[in-house]
Amino acid sequence: MHTLESDRLMQESPRMSTNTQARPAFGTVLADQMAIATYRDGRWSDYQVKPTAPVEIHPAAHVLHYASECFEGFKAYRWADGSVRAFRMDKHVERMRQSARLLVLPVPDAEQLSQMVLATIDRVRGQVPEPPGALYMRPMLYGTMPNIGAASAPSNEATLIVLASPVWDYFSGGMKPLRIYVEDQKHRTADHLGMVKTGGNYAAAMGPTLEAREKFKVDQVLFCPGGSVQETGAANFLLIRDGHILTRSLDSTFLHGVTRDSLLTLARDLGFKVEERVFDVQEMLDWVKDGEAALSGTAAVLAGVGTLVLRDGTEVRVGNGDVGPVTQRLRAALVAIQNGESADRYGWTRKV
Ligand SMILES: *Cc1c(COP(=O)(O)O)cnc(C)c1O
User: What pLDDT score does 117 carry?
Assistant: First the structure.
């Protein structure tokens, strides 16, 4: 395993800054094997598992000019019986295929991509940390057609790689409530690409996020263009109050998180009323007076929001300003299924 720029990444992640156990920051360590396949002449090659190392890329490759790229992120957990289990892999494979389709990239074969993930996990089995750690899987796909005149032509060549990264406790510094800037004007990305997990969306959100961090000392930005609440740069947004959850209904403007789907499924089964619909900043401010707000995503699972900061600098406290009890309970319920402490009634975990 090797470390990549861990110091710099630690600085960019305020939630990790009080990490006293000196565990490497999320994403800075890679497992030593990866799987790779290439697309050419209308077909995918067989895949290979080989040492994690730099890949050669033509400087005219489509991705380097026209950002033809997408990726996935999900985890495999070490269970107490020693087995390793991938969490909702099929859902992530399908989402990757959808991202590829929407970006007009060669679409990976679902069976082959699944086999690449399973083979990679199998080869680095010994590098999967104990819970609350996990092995974070990062499949990635990019266009390699060497043609700088292809601004409006799709790449007919591509590379598919599955990287794996051991990750440790996301909340090792304690579960601190997040400060979130409410961006009610700027868009995170183009509305028709919000549901695609592509690097370009992160590039688009980077400027506004760094600006808000600098100006308001926030952790993340909640994008609410035209006042309509969407999501943050890398996580979905949920409101919780009185056994009731409110979150945006699925549309093309935001990423359809698998964690969001898992939490909503669990919440319904626990008797929560779950409402998926469009809502605006005004309604959100009303909810948080005596409710909870949280961000969902694979990395943190569910992270509580303590403060919302508005454009004029007004700070709005969410509930009593701490991570809410329901947020903690829902998170614990999902984590218990992921690491095998609770029975998986949903068929979400797959033995590798
Ligand atoms: C990956 C991602 C999420 C979270 O999705 P999960 O499947 O829950 O990990 C949310 N928003 C954006 C923009 C993302 O890229």
Answer: 98
Does residue 262 sit within a domain?
A: yes
CATH number at residue 283: 3.20.10.10
Which atom of ligand 1 is least distant from the CA of 95?
Answer: 7
Cα(236) to ligand 1 centroid in Å equals 7
Measured between alpha carbons, how far is 269 from 5 in angstroms, rounded to an integer? 42
Query: Nearest-CA neighbor of 41 among 154, 156, 150?
Result: 156
Q: Which of 276, 186, 260, 190 is nearest to 223 (CA)?
A: 186
Ligand 1 center–CA 41 separation, angstroms? 32
CA dist., res. 338 & res. 265, Å (int): 14
Q: Are 296 and 263 in contact (CB under 8 A)?
A: yes
Distance 233 CA to ligand 1 centre (A): 9
Range of the domain at 258: 178-338
Q: Determine the distance separating the centroid of ligand 1 and the alpha carbon of 310, expressed in angstroms.
A: 24
Residue nearest to atom 14 of ligand 1 (CA): 234
Ligand 1, residues at Cβ distance < 6 Å: 73, 197, 231, 234-236, 255, 257-260, 296-298
Q: How many domains does the chain have?
A: 2
Residue that the structure tokens 């033995």 belong to: 351
Same domain, 128 and 239: no
Same domain, residue pair 320 and 218: yes
* Closest C-alpha residue for ligand 1 atom 2: 234
Q: What is the pLDDT of residues 73-117, one digit of tens each?
A: 999 999 999 999 999 999 999 999 999 999 999 999 999 999 999
Ramachandran category for residue 336: left, alpha or beta (phi over 0 → left; psi -120 to 50 → alpha): alpha
Full-prediction pTM beyond 0.90?
yes
